[in-house]
């Protein structure tokens, strides 16, 4: 179940519905990739056909960013729940903890990814952190070998977008993994190097406001949101 916004498809399902589908993918041995869709990515993809194809090729395009939910509602769409990239990562960690799945973490600095893995293992003792590899390792053969030897069901890639999505697309057929997710700077959060917004902001969908207050230089990125909403409402693309 997806709808299209400025040429980019986005899933309509709730987080729990997506998790049910993902668990079924693991049980059936299917390969699936997850990408977070926010207004900034949609605006870039509307001008970049290669990026648009990269995003639309993914199995699950989660509605990250309150702007996606607002645009869907304004267009008469069905997206009612925001599913953030880091929120989905945490939901997958909970799924792995419940079912004893193995995870692998690739990306970020060595100290960051290792500390994040330690904290995750402490928080979710029933999952298995099968391995970690920092983002400074560039040899594809070494990366593929390390991941395959670890035998994870879930792979988190933290290389920044769209680099992480390109890595997943180029290598997923050679990787013995079921679920692939690009997670941006999430390892920094799990390591404790970066703090998430307080729950008040998370629950009200105003995490962007907290980040803007913390990093005023983000103002140019945030100014793209009104432009996105105007284009999305005017666009005659649709729901499917």
Automatic annotation (TrEMBL):
It catalyses: UDP-N-acetyl-alpha-D-mannosamine + N-acetyl-alpha-D-glucosaminyl-di-trans,octa-cis-undecaprenyl diphosphate = N-acetyl-beta-D-mannosaminyl-(1->4)-N-acetyl-alpha-D-glucosaminyl di-trans,octa-cis-undecaprenyl diphosphate + UDP + H(+). It is an enzyme of class 2 (transferase). Pathway: Cell wall biogenesis; teichoic acid biosynthesis. One of its GO terms (molecular function) is N-acetylglucosaminyldiphosphoundecaprenol N-acetyl-beta-D-mannosaminyltransferase activity. Coiled coil: none annotated. One of its GO terms (biological process) is cell wall organization. Keywords: Cell wall biogenesis/degradation, Glycosyltransferase, Teichoic acid biosynthesis, Transferase. Its EC number is 2.4.1.187. It comes from the Bacteria. HAMAP family: TagA_TarA. Catalyzes the conversion of GlcNAc-PP-undecaprenol into ManNAc-GlcNAc-PP-undecaprenol, the first committed lipid intermediate in the de novo synthesis of teichoic acid. Belongs to the glycosyltransferase 26 family. TagA/TarA subfamily. NCBIfam families: wecG_tagA_cpsF. This is N-acetylglucosaminyldiphosphoundecaprenol N-acetyl-beta-D-mannosaminyltransferase. It comes from Planococcus rifietoensis. The lineage of its organism: Bacteria, Bacillati, Bacillota, Bacilli, Bacillales.
């Amino acid at each position: 179940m997806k709808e299209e916004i400025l040429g980019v498809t986005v899933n309509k399902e709730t987080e729990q519905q997506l998790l049910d589908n993902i668990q079924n993918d693991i049980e059936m041995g299917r390969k699936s990739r997850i990408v977070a869709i926010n207004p900034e990515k949609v605006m870039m993809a509307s001008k970049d056909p290669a990026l648009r194809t990269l995003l639309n090729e993914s199995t699950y395009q989660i509605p990250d960013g309150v702007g996606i939910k607002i645009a869907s509602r304004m267009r008469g769409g069905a997206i009612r729940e925001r599913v953030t990239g880091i929120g989905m990562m945490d939901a997958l960690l909970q799924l792995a903890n419940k079912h004893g799945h193995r995870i692998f973490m690739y990306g970020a600095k060595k100290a960051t990814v290792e500390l994040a893995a330690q904290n995750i293992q402490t928080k979710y003792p029933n999952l298995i952190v099968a391995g970690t590899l920092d983002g400074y390792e560039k040899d594809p053969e070494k990366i593929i070998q390390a991941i395959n030897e670890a035998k994870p069901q879930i792979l988190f890639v933290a290389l920044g977008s769209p680099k992480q999505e390109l890595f997943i697309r180029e290598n997923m057929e050679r990787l013995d993994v079921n679920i692939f997710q690009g997670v941006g700077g999430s390892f920094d959060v799990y390591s404790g190097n970066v703090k998430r917004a307080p729950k008040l902001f998370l629950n009200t969908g105003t995490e962007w406001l907290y980040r803007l207050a913390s990093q005023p230089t983000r103002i140019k990125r945030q100014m793209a949101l009104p432009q996105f909403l105007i284009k999305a409402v005017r666009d005659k693309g649709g729901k499917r």
